[in-house]
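Hey team,

Filing this mostly as a record. A colleague (T.K.) asked me to run one chain through the structure pipeline before their review meeting, and I want the input and output archived in the tracker in case anyone asks later how it was produced. No errors, nothing strange. Just documentation.

Input sequence:
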Amino acid sequence: MTALAKSKNGRAYIRPENPVRPRDAASLVILRQRKGVCEVLMGKRASRHRFMPNIFVFPGGRVDVADRGADLVADLAKPVAAKLETKWSPRMARALAVAAVRETFEETGLVIGERQNNSLRPNLAGLDYVARAITPPDSPMRFHARFFSIDVKETSGQVRDSDELQNLQWFSLDDALAMDLVDVTEFVLTEVKRRQEGWRPPGVPLFSYRNGRAVIKYES
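Output structure:
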């Protein structure tokens, strides 16, 4: 049996009887300091996307099989790897970080590592692990997203729009939070802003849903 439900934008969809298994995904929060203000790079997802069209998000996407065996310039810093490896194998932890860097290159043109023709050797040393989130069980498309952050100084190249992300811009954290965002993006931006203000979280936050309500849990 299926049930009719509505997404956040009010469009109806058929809710599956058995929840869809979330796909592994990763996103990258790219930060810079400009005149004493912390800014974040965000772009608008293309209108053709089934998942969150016309919404401002961070660069990111699904983990590919090739991400698990990517040739690296440098691996994750040990403290960052340790946070990831409490939940996943070293190979999977590395693949998540590689996916964030690769997707950023494909969607924004920014290089984190070494560019070789149209491919990339990722440098993971400057990444931090910020949070993870799982989309609701009744969503017709589900992702288990891990969010990393990096300073723009660790990147090279020029920001340019792509087929995936358009209208790429730098926003102050306050301006970004004032936009019409999905709840997960708002949650990650809030986490980043609090850290920029000196707050130290008790663990890595997980944003998920229980009985239709958003739940935040800090995992040590």
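Quick notes for T.K.: Residues 90-108 form the longest helix (19 residues). The helical segments are 78-84, 90-108, 173-177, 183-196.
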